[in-house]
Amino acid sequence: MRTRGRLGDRLLHAYTWLIIIWLSSPIAVMILFGFNDKQSKSNTTWQGFTLRWYAELFDVSDLTVALRNSLVIALVSTVITVVIGTMLGLALGRHRFRGSGATNFLVFAAISTPELVMGASLLSLFVSGNVPRDANTIIIAHVLFSLSFVVVTVRARVVGLDPSLEEAARDLGATAWGTFRQVTLPSIMPGVLAGAMLSFALSIDDYVVTSFVNGSTVTFPLWIVGAVKTGIPPQVNVMGTLIFGIGVLIAVANAVAARRRA
Amino acid sequence: MRRLTPYLLALPGWMWLAIFLVVPMAAMASVSLQTGNAIDGFAMTFSFSNYGDALSTYSTQLLRSLLYGGLATVAMLLIGYPVAYWIAFRGGRRKSMYLFLLLLPFFVSFVLRTISWNFLLADNGILFGTLKDWGLLPEGFHVLATTFAVVGGLTYNFLPFMILPIYVALERVDPRVVEAAQDLYATRAAAFRRVVLPLSLPGVFAGVLMTFVPATADPVNAQILGGTSNTMIGNIIQTEYLTNLDYPTASALSFTLMAILLVGIFVYAKALGTENVLEAAAR
């Protein structure tokens, strides 16, 4: 019985790694072909190693602009989303108030709405209201589709939080703000951080919603899709590789710092 | 002041959802009943026939989208549950490392990942081209532009969204509860079926919700991996909206798609038991 259990565990362990490798394989391809010394127009067969595309990283100027747009939009929309999403998550997780049912439904609806429908309906609104489409409308859309994920992760954390901890803090003379900062916030922080990471990833990733509300502002994913027909320049691979590397570095540094503190 | 706290906390988020989710739906509902064209403008004529026309023209793509979305969701559940299970119960101190590795694809743009697949699976690309050169595959073998490529791409792209909520639900399961079941002479299988599985259902519910909806409505995988014979409803809506500028048809299709998905979610929620729908969705 025990050995069977151990064998099953070992198989599942191997299986988990297999899935991780599957999920990572396109990333490996992306990184590899950023080093491809391609001579022809298309970057599809391996033709030798080069660092040329790293040296000429910003030579495709509209691609550079698109990348910068994506980073700024992701940063701004994540900050907005985390602040208002954490507030809403706290309100829904901790309090019963008039309209909390309806608000829960709205949060639920925002998750269930397909990106496509969200983009199309926002475009309908902006067209009807003659709102010019630019980076601002992209940020509005990105906050909208990220918001519910922050609310949901924070709310789950708040619901799981023992209220007697906060009561104890209040009994020991902490102010409402002090209790929030020193008891509530640290307890819900994993939820807030998870929500923030998800928001940033969703924003920098998004193609579908953005394609409806971008106007003439081009983001990194939009530029790439636009370039599929003419051929993706290797600079895209390099940028993807750098974003990937920086993201991984930040995440690992974060985890190491958290372990030091503990 | 204390009584006002929840309202003040909820206000900004609530307003965002009301103004940018509810109001646009109303705008789109209105557009879906209008007639006209992009040059002369559109006028409200309450033409409910827009819906019938759009549906009869694009029913194939709509049904195909539901089928592909459903197939991908089942595949993700079957592929993802064991991974979430193993990490939650056997991940030990490396749990966060495994989760991090599963989330690695999120550090690369969705579009770029799909293009990488297109590239990996290309008829004469690095994978199949090599195998063909070695004579291990017939010359005519291809994966791109097939149903398998699109469903596989959808499964690949949304899998982490299935694994994470199931993991969160399983991670909350106290291992002592499972031990208790086994102490009471439940076999491992029975302990899983009667204790672990029911406790993980909220995670499964959230996972299915987070994957079926975006997979069904996704235009990117069909566009990049599907060729011309696997067009999904997302591609049609995008083309009608952005290329043909036929806003009424596009809006009618968007609404129909959303209605079908919402009804599907509610039927599905009813089947799982309604009491915890919102709570389950929250996890």
Please describe the structure with a list of short key phrases separated by commas or semicolons.
heterodimer; A: 262 residues; mainly alpha; MetI-like fold; 11 helices; globular; B: 283 residues; two-stranded antiparallel ribbon; 74% helix; 3% strand
Structure description:
The complex is a heterodimer of chains A (262) and B (283). Chain A is 77% helix and 0% strand. Chain A has 262 residues and is an all-alpha fold. Chain A has a domain at 61-232: MetI-like (MetI-like fold, Orthogonal Bundle). The mean pLDDT of chain A is 89. Chain B has 283 residues and is mainly α. Chain B has a single domain (60-282), classed as MetI-like fold (Orthogonal Bundle). Chain B is 74% helix and 3% strand. Chain B contains 12 helices and 2 strands, in the order αββααααααααααα. A two-stranded antiparallel sheet of chain B has the order 1-2. In chain B, β1 (34-37) and β2 (41-44) form a beta hairpin. Chain B is globular, with a radius of gyration of 23 Å. The model of chain B has no long low-confidence stretch (mean pLDDT 88). Chains A and B meet through α1, α3, α4, α5 and α6 of A and α1, α2, α3, α4 and α6 of B.
Order of strands, widest sheet of chain B = 1-2
Briefly note the structural class of the backbone of chain A: mainly alpha
| Bulk shape of chain A | globular
Q: Which CATH architecture of chain B?
A: Orthogonal Bundle
- Tell me the overall shape of chain B: globular
The named CATH superfamily of the domain at 61-232 in chain A: MetI-like
Oligomer: heterodimer
Q: How many beta strands in the DSSP annotation of chain A?
A: 0
Summarize the biggest pleated sheet of chain B.
Answer: 2 strands, antiparallel
Report low-confidence residues of chain A grouped into runs of 5 or more: none
What order do the SSEs of chain A take from the amino end to the carboxyl end, as H and E?
HHHHHHHHHHH
* Beta-strand segment tally of chain B: 2
**What does the average pLDDT of chain B come to?**
88
CATH level 1 name of the domain at 61-232 in chain A: Mainly Alpha
Strand portion of chain B, in percent? under 5%
Tell me the number of helical segments of chain A per DSSP (H or I, 4 or more residues long).
Answer: 11
Q: What percentage of residues of chain B falls in helices of 4 or more residues?
A: over 70%
Total domain count of chain B: 1
Structural class of chain B: mainly alpha
CATH topological fold name of the domain at 61-232 in chain A: MetI-like fold
- Helix percent of chain A reads over 70%
